[in-house]
Amino acid sequence: MARTPRILHLLVALCSLSSSSITVASASGAADSFLGCLAAAGVPPRLLQTPASPSYDALLRSSVRNLRYVAPGTPRPLAIVAAAEPAHSQATVRCGRRHGVRIRARSGGHDYEGLSYASLDPRERFAVLDLAAFREVRVDAARAEAWAGSGATLGEVYYAVGAASRALAFPAGVCPTVGVGGHLSGGGFGTLMRRYGLAADNVLDAVLVDAEGRLLNRTTMGEDLFWAIRGGGGESFGVVLSWKLRLVPVPETVTVFTVRRSRNQSASDLITKWQEIAPALPRDLILRVVVQSRHAQFEALFLGRCSRLLDHMRAHFPDLGVARADCEEISWIQSTVYFAFYSSSKPLELLLDRIGETGRYVKAKSDYVQEPIPRRVWESTWSWLEKPEAGLLILDPYGGRMASISPSATPFPHRKGNLYNLQYYSSWFENGTAALEKRMSWVRGLYREMEPYVSKNPRTGYVNYRDLDLGTNELQGNVTSYAKARIWGEKYFRGNFERLAAVKSMVDPDDFFRNEQSIPPLPAAKGWSSI
Question: What Pfam families has UniProt attached to this entry (predicted)?
Fold first, then answer.
């Protein structure tokens, strides 16, 4: 009898080994069939990489921004397809459906939870469709429009717009290595949002490969699908290859400043006052805050001259003490360098660097704040920010144009009534479980501390700051469970989640495009009256 546990353990081990062998064999067969289908469809072999290929690891890591999802043991794609033209993307989708291989599309690789290149499920057979070659940006300054490939970075878009005109801009985020595809799919906010709204608010058209492998534009996809892809999150409705953008007017000279105040210089008081002041400032002015260690850094962009900016600051926020010496008058394109690299004197060509800083582990979470957080809470937050493992907080104010756009205009619902977005961000270089646990614990712990002071019923977040702590999908039959997805989905999309699921039912009822936080099909019993 004493030997029974050991025998059982051996049997379990043998069963696991047998099951693993079957899975590997099955995956290998799926990969061979998938690759054979791609070859028959005319996709050149040089664009296909498998784990046996010498360049596979380099290509997989080429735009990985979070090393948590390339750690040993992370499920890896059966293949990477570096599509060079739309037909390659269409073939990838068609062959994936035919041979049971899911497709995850990657543009910039900045998604915080690695959903564009990794899976949490070791049983999932998936391939990565890498869109890096879809990076052309064509600017029509006369029409104030541009076409940008999903694989282009925001920096490449900014550089092209700046080269075409000093009086045009595109309203999007501050990080130049972020991919256009993912950024626009989730909404995309940045320093011009208080004047012009989100990046997704300024999309005029798109070219998309749907679940049938068809190439569609706004006219052929219809307004419901066009609505869904502008803020409904990536990886749910198809693969967007390119976007038509509305460019917006800016003065040839804008003004920026960065003012740093320490905890001992009334930083808690300033942040407390900022919460009501920043969302109510003129819409040509954004004043964001980065809080780290013992300092709060106030960063501003004003669409005008320094003298007028100083008038606004004296009228609305004299306690910050902004002086003329703090201001820099530069062009809008220089301001994109300023916010990315904290210097306006660095060359514009830095915007074309697609790699940027890599080799980091990342965890982030987000909140929306609808009532000012009391000063005592900010004062107690310093104890979190002064820890050795601490990350930082980023406060981006809304108001202005953001408050006047309907919450249902796009899937992005966080409009009127939100003072600012609060991001908890940690990145680190140390490998190992100890570093991971300390950093993750810091982000999650501070997030818990702030729960009483942020949005409620539900507690909301920003889909481009993906956070799998909010919930992950489960299958119900062969499609994603709507009930389980609602748990996280209404936190990102509030009342727009059901409409997104209705669109999913129309365009991808078999749920081919799915991941850990993709939109599920709406159950037939629920229906949707406006579609």
Answer: BBE, FAD_binding_4
What distance in Å separates the CA atoms of residue 43 and residue 311, rounded to the nearest whole number? 60
CA 278, CA 317: separation in Å to the nearest integer? 9
Residue 344, CA distances (Å) to 321, 334, 350, 358, 362 in order: 22, 6, 11, 23, 27
Query: Does residue 462 lie within any of the structural domains?
Result: no
Residue 497 lies in a domain: no
C-alpha–C-alpha distance, residues 318 and 312, integer Å: 9
Cβ atoms 322, 313 nearer than 8 A: yes
Do 220 and 267 have their domain in common?
no
Q: For residues 372, 375, 381 and 386, what is the CA-based torsion angle, rounded to 10 degrees?
A: 130
Question: What DSSP character marks residue 524?
Answer: T
pLDDT in tens, 283-328: 999 999 999 999 999 999 999 999 999 999 999 999 999 999 999 9
pLDDT of 176: 97
Q: Is residue 515 part of a domain?
A: no
Q: Which residues contact 465 (CB under 8 A, 6 or more apart)?
A: 112, 364, 365, 366, 423
The single-letter code of the amino acid at 44 is P
Q: Give the amino acid at 358.
A: T
* Paired tokens of 387: 């820890």
- Closest of 119, 32, 120 to residue 79, by C-alpha: 32
CB within 8 A of 53, min separation 6: which ones? none
Instruction: Calculate ∠ Cα 269-277-288, nearest 5°.
Output: 80
Name the β-bridge partners of 286: 301
Same domain? 219 vs 366: no
Residues 6+ apart with CB under 8 A from 243: 147, 148, 150, 180, 181, 184, 203, 205, 206, 207
Q: Which residue has the tokens 């107690």?
A: 380
Q: Which of 397, 429, 453 is the last residue of a domain?
A: 453
Say which amino acid occupies 51.
P
Alpha helix (H) residue ranges in 42-85: 56-61
User: Quick one: 394 and 281 in the same domain?
Assistant: yes
Q: What is the DSSP letter of 454?
A: S
> Does 238 lie in the same domain as 178?
yes
Give the structural domain span for 365: 254-330+359-453
Query: At 46, is the secondary structure helix, strand, or coil?
Result: helix
Q: How many CB atoms lie within 10 A of CB 223?
A: 9
| Side-chain-facing half-sphere of 114: CA atoms under 13 Å | 23
Q: Is the CB of residue 466 less than 8 Å from the CB of residue 497?
A: no
Please check whether residue 79 lies inside any domain of the structure. yes
Asked if 446 and 384 touch (Cβ cutoff 8 Å), the reply is yes
Q: At residue 228, what is the residue type?
A: A
Q: What is the pLDDT of residues 397-441, one digit of tens each?
A: 999 999 999 999 999 999 999 999 999 999 999 999 999 999 999
Q: In this structure, are residues 104 and 116 in contact, taking their beta carbons and an 8 Å threshold?
A: yes
Residues with Cβ within 8 Å of residue 453, at least 6 apart in sequence: 369, 371, 373, 374, 377
- What span, in angstroms and rounded, lies between the C-alpha atoms of 36 and 423? 44
- From 395, 429, 453, give the residue that closes a domain: 453
- Residue entry with tokens 């999802």: 69
